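Supplementary Methods S3. Input chains for the assembly prediction are listed below.
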Amino acid sequence: MTKRKKRQDDFQKVKLKVGKKKPRPDNATSVSFRSKSIHLSEQLRRDESGPTTHRQLGIKDLLSQLHHYNATVKQGALFGLRELLASHTPLVHQHLSTILSEVAAAFTDKDGVVRRAALRLLRFVAQCVPGEHVAPFFPLLSAHLTCAMTHISSGIQADALLVLDVLLEHYPALLAHRHAHLLTNFLELISQQKLGGGAKAQAKPGAGKTWALSITPERRTTAQQWRLTVLLRLSRFLEAVVEERAGEGGVVSADKVTADKCLVTPLELNWEEQPFGKGGVQVFENSGAKPTPHSTYRLRPDLEPGAGVDSVLGSLEAVRGFAETLVPLLMEVWVETVGADSGHLISDDAMALMQQVLTVLQLLRRLTPQHHLQEELDSWLRTSYLRDFRQHFMKNFPYSLLDTPIQRHKKKGEGKRTRQQVMGGSVASGNADPLGLNVTLCQVMVTLSVKGRGQPEGQDADWLGPIRSFVRETLMDGGRLGGRQLAPLLEVVWSLVLNQKSRTVTEELLQAVHAQYHQRNLSVSVRLMLLRFFSRLYLQEHLSRSKILARWLASLPVQLVQLGSRNPQLSAQILQTLQSAAAWRNKDLLQSLQTQACSLYDPVQGCVVVLPADSQQRLVQMLYFLPAFPPDLLACLSRICNTGRVSASLAATLIRIIHLRSSLSGWQCSSQEVAVRDVDYFSFLFSTLIGFCQDEITELQQREDESIALPSSFSPFSIYSTPEEQFTHHWDVVEVSAVCHCLETLGSRSQCFDLLQNGVYKTLVGLTVVPDSVCAAVLRFVSRLLDVNVIPNETLLNFLSDCCLSMLSLFLQLEPGTHRREAVWGACLAALSTVPRLLRLVLQALRVGDLCEEEFPQVAQILQLLMQHTHLRNHMIANNALLQQIIQELTQYSVESRDQWLTDLLYCYSTTVSSHRGNLF
Amino acid sequence: MSAPVEVVVSADSAGQLWNCAVFELHSGTNLLSYRGGNTSARSLTLLSGEYILGGQVGKNFINVWEIQRKDQLQQKIVCPGNVTCLTASPDGLYLLAGIAEAIHLWEVSTGNLLAILSRHYQELTCIRFTDDSSHFVSGGKDNLVFIWNLASLIQLDSSRSSDPRHILSGHTLPITDIHCGFMGAQGRVATASLDHTVKLWEISSGEMLLSVVFDVCIMSVTLDPCEYFLFCGGGDGTIYQVSLCSTNFSRDKTFQSDSEGNQIFKGHRNFVTCLSVSMDGTLLLSGSHDETLRLWDIQSKQSIRTVAHKGPVTNAFIIPAPANMFLPDSRPSIPLPRFSRHLNPSEQGESSSLGGVCLRMGPNAQAPEETYLEKADKFYSLMCAVTDKSVFGDGENTKVRVSELEEEVKTLKKINKDLYDFSTQLLTKPS
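Predicted structure tokens for the full assembly:
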């Protein structure tokens, strides 16, 4: 029963009672939870067609919205595009064509806000797309731009200029290629075309239509300001065109003459590197049928001009035609501007406008496709417009600013705002200073003056006079001019000086520039500019008669000395001029150079040691042109060679140059008097050979130092071991390069040897402390200079044998493998093998009895080395008796310790002697 | 013994044995020698294969020999100053001399001094003509090299200033030697200088093509006939060979890794002042201040022969042997006129040339239009004659011809008739 009771039924019946709450069923669903959605934005985005803006608009949506009728929607779409492209830059490249075409279409939108938004988008796109990617779409862009520029609504016209700004900033080259359409548009912006009606007599027979300035009263800005904006763009545009020309045609504009133009890049080779050079030498590209593209021979004019030049500005006639329409317009603008103001005092805005007029004129002149056509254009401008220019430009020539402080204060805020709007916020207000205006005016006018010598003087005097006096006063003023004003001013002076052959006038102008040059505290760039001006004047135009120039040249060496190492760039420029002038035998300069020579070539702080390597080389090369070498200068030069502050190769160059200037070299010096006296030349060579001056050697005698080895009977001198690099340098100068060679080629060797023998006798014999480099050098020169028929002095031989012994003992002390060890050994061997008596003396000096026991192994080693050497072997055999005696003594003294070295020596001796006998019999 | 093809002409500054001598190129035998005076550096030249001219050292005249009369000094041309360099144009029409800073230009046929060009600032060291005589190149101690156009200098129009065509201002120390390559105005010119460099320029554009820096100053330079190699004589007696079209092939040849060794000719002990390459490009001649002349085999870089001189060698060059040189009886085709010392011949009273024709340009100046017209007429009549003949024939000839032809026709007809008869007989017989 219990079992039955306990067992639960599967389907219990639930009893429901009235008044009680219905129990919850077990399977009831709880609805207490809350649900939240999860956004996986990346996944979602991938599903769709691309990224979106914060408004979930894809690029397609945005582009389609651009065609909406509502301006706000269009503006929003443009903003959205910018946002989208900014966050996803790769999109720009994917959709470039559509974006550009839509944006371009928005240039001519009738709503200002849309246009402004399009402009911002364009600016953004231009920033991140390079020119070559835009190039295929550029025809479209420029077509829309043209459309906007010629639009009937003035607002759209104004905004088109802003678009032009953006394009000019980023794609000047592309824009310059399309100047055909754009130039006329510019004209239409400020003027209107009058079709040549029958009633009006045509002013110019060639042109069918004339242009006149137009005024549109409904514009918000004044006509003056509007013209200013247009002209500003025009000048920038022309600048881009000119730049483009310069790039493609190699036209050298006036201000770039200083920079070396190099059409063919020359190959620079070094002799040592030549066999291992990478690319190989190829100088035959143009040989044969096709002459180089830069040849100055022109058999016929080029049939096809450069690719970028199209019909509008491609030829001189085209440029002239354009100028024919533009120049009268500019003159009208000028006249209206000046008319508004009184006399030579003009207001701020007017000045900016005038400045622009002049800039455009200047650029117009440079538009010619080829450089040589420029003069033709100049002369044409002169014949047709000189009268107008003179009448209008020169009337109130030195213009200055009308200072109206009250007016300015009042409308400063307002004026500023309009100005900003006008200029697109991109023009510096400093553009309109009176000095700049006057200088530009000078530039324009000077180009019109007559060139060539045959022209009568004083033809242009009436208007060149004021210009000249203005330039002079500005320069003489004492005020410091910045580089920006000075550069065009110097250009004016340059052309004035070149065109004007009257000497007094030229001198006055140069005097003014010279005064500027002499100011203190000029900035480096300005100083460099002035320096370049003078050196160009001297180098290119051969104005060698000018006194100012002569004075300037003469002052250059002093300046170079004063500059020292402070400004290597300036020094290099000075040196370049100096070198040419010296080569051209300018008397003033050479005189000044001669007086300054000792300070220039001072071995301690002279320019030759403190300047960088290429300037050093120039300085050394300049030595060739010095009229005379006094002994003190030669002393300086010898010190320079030895102190190691110039490289060994340069020192060699120096020695060779002096060699060339001495009478002993045989290089043709028929007309020049001999600059270096023979006595001085020998002293120079000898002191370079020794490498130490007298004072240093005497000072060495008293010195107590660990670098000086004490003398012993084995090494008779105390050897002062020079520092490693000094030794190497000295060795290079003596051995590798010039000194020995110069001595060898002097002609009579025996006399030359006698002289040097005397030198050694006087300065070195009797010393106790000798530097090792000196020993090595003396041994070297003896071996190279001595030949059979010269018998050296007894004292010299003794000195040499002492040298040799000391060197040999030094040789053993040096660790193997060093440069010094090789040098020492080489010098000893060469000396011993050329002078057999020297070997005998050395062997005689090896008195074993005087040596202490520790030195025996060293002696044995030296003997062994000498015997083993092939050149010396025969000489050793000849001195067999001496050798035998030494070996006997050695065995005798070291009888108690028969060491390895002794057996080695004996073995070596026996082989040498026996092989010799074998040869004999 | 057949006459040699190429000869070496050399001179030294001592002039003890002879002023200048002619050697056979291959055997080194002394063929001729010209006596009297001595010759300064780079001033020995051959004028149109008939005269030898050499500037005297330290004196203001030029020695002239007729090329076949070896011993006798023929003439002395007195100059305004010491001659530092001298050259004659390859066509033999003009003579150039560097006298101090000025270049003097003479016309050989009249002896007139055509121009004095003083653009150099210091003494001249070397003048060379291009091989077509159209341009010449001058170098001086003022580091400058000028390329001049001969035609523009000798134009009668004196108002034009005489400016060089190009100014080459790349060197920084005096110029020592110049060599003009082939191909006239389209060629190249190599200049050597004391500033350790040799530079190669293009004559047409005046641009520098190549600059090689050496360890020593370079005293002489030459190119081989193919212009594959540049030979540079150094101030220490070494001659360097620079390949102008080296490719990278040499890298693979490990055998030639010691490439410095096989680019150098070693042997001289002092300045190498003259270099010259033979016509076939196998032999190099070098003259030096160590008083020897050496001949080298270019391929193996070995010295084949050494000719000792008595003084520093001033001039040495290889030339094709002129025809007259070994014919003692020959005469020069034109006598040498008196060379004038002043620019304007009228000042000397030579009025004969004042009013006369001054023919400087164009060799054929005798009314060429007329002759051409005549020629054209002649040609025209010839052509007309030919066409007339072919169309209309000529009276006499045609009659004869017609009768001949008629006769031939007759005989042919007769033969034909015979044939016909024969065949008809043959055919009709069996029937």
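The CA atoms of residues 522 and 679 of chain A lie 47 Å apart. Chain A touches chain B through 53 residues (CB under 8 Å).
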